[in-house]
Specification:
The chain has 12 helices and 3 strands; from the N terminus they run H-E-H-H-E-E-H-H-H-H-H-H-H-H-H. By secondary structure, it is mainly alpha-helical. A hairpin with a 2-residue loop joins strand 2 and strand 3.
Length: 325
């Protein structure tokens, strides 16, 4: 259809007001005579130019308008302005659809290279031209929405990056706190295991003597010997009495052996040696305090009776025996 419209414009002498007006029934007759498509249905020629009217908006052919209806199947085409565009379309159509192109002009083609009409020349000369500043303003106005969209997108990207960094820092903090908590829990579990092991060892030290039947029998025998020796030393007397002192010493040795006879490592005996030395020092200090309190005239009678009791005498004798050893 654009080629038929252009052909009418050239054949009618490019006279504006006549040659640029087309009628739908003429276009229908030319298309049907060229056998490019089947005949139109009755009253089906209304969409011939209507399709051009709808496509001109999609292809930005509205400044100025390419085609506009005038009523009763007549359309006005702005050929003085769009003739170069139709010429370009005709050349492309000729290259791609040469067979169909020949069917449009079975007799003779118009003189496509004819000079433009006077009206067209005057129209082209009277068209306003845009200056460089106006062209730059127009370009700026066209690019302004794109620039604004890019800025908004950059701002959104910056906000997302900031939120991502913040989330990563929070994640690192939570991971560090979780790691620290896990380490502290491991330390607590380790110390708990060490304490349990230490307590078990302490219990084993005392329980070894009652763990097996043989150990239990030996322990009971030694405790009986310890008790009998202690009773005998009290009966015989230990104040300047060597037999009583030996019985008391034997009772002490039997008591210690009752719990230490299952030991098989030197470490436990070293602990026992340190405990004996510490007890020896404490006994000496306690003996000095008791002697000082007993010799003080201002001390109460009850305290003096306590100092002169057999228990205190036995304690003093054990300190003397330990010093001698």
């Amino acid at each position: 259809m654009p080629i038929l419209i252009l052909a009418k414009w050239i054949r009618d002498g490019k006279i504006e007001g006549e040659a640029n007006y087309v009628r739908t029934y003429e276009l229908k007759r030319r298309i049907e005579s060229s056998m490019l498509r089947p005949p139109f249905k009755p009253k089906g020629d209304g969409g011939i130019c209507g399709s051009l009217t709808s496509k001109q908006k999609a292809r930005n052919l509205t400044r100025p308008i390419f085609i506009e209806p005038q009523g009763e199947g007549i359309f006005r085409v702005n050929l003085p302005y769009y003739e170069p565009l139709l010429q370009e379309y005709r050349e492309k159509y000729l290259k791609e659809y040469s067979t169909d192109y020949k069917k449009l002009f079975p007799d003779k083609e118009p003189d496509w290279g004819a000079l433009p009409s006077k009206d067209q020349t005057e129209y082209e000369e009277s068209r306003p031209t845009l200056s460089a500043l106006e062209l730059m303003d127009e370009i700026h106005n066209l690019l302004a929405p794109i620039d604004q969209a890019l800025r908004e997108r950059q701002q959104a990207i910056a906000e997302l990056t900031e939120s991502n960094d913040k989330l990563q820092s929070e994640l690192f903090a939570l991971r560090a706190a979780f790691q620290e908590r896990r380490e502290s829990r491991r330390l607590v579990q380790r110390w708990t295991a060490i304490d349990e092991t230490h307590n078990q060892k302490k219990e084993i030290v005392m329980i070894d003597s009652f763990s097996k039947r043989n150990n239990k029998i030996k322990t009971l025998i030694l405790l009986v010997v310890c008790g009998l020796s202690a009773i005998a030393s009290v009966v015989v007397g230990i104040d300047d009495n060597p037999p009583g002192v030996l019985l008391a010493l034997f009772a002490a040795i039997a008591f210690i052996l009752a719990f230490s006879h299952p030991w098989r490592t030197a470490r436990k005996f070293i602990f026992l040696l340190f405990a004996s030395i510490l007890g020896f020092v404490l006994f000496i200090i306690l003996n000095i305090i008791l002697d000082t309190a007993a010799q003080d005239p201002a001390t109460a009678d009850a305290l003096q009776d306590l100092m002169q009791s057999p228990i205190v005498d036995a304690l003093r004798s054990s300190v003397k025996i330990t010093s001698a050893l």
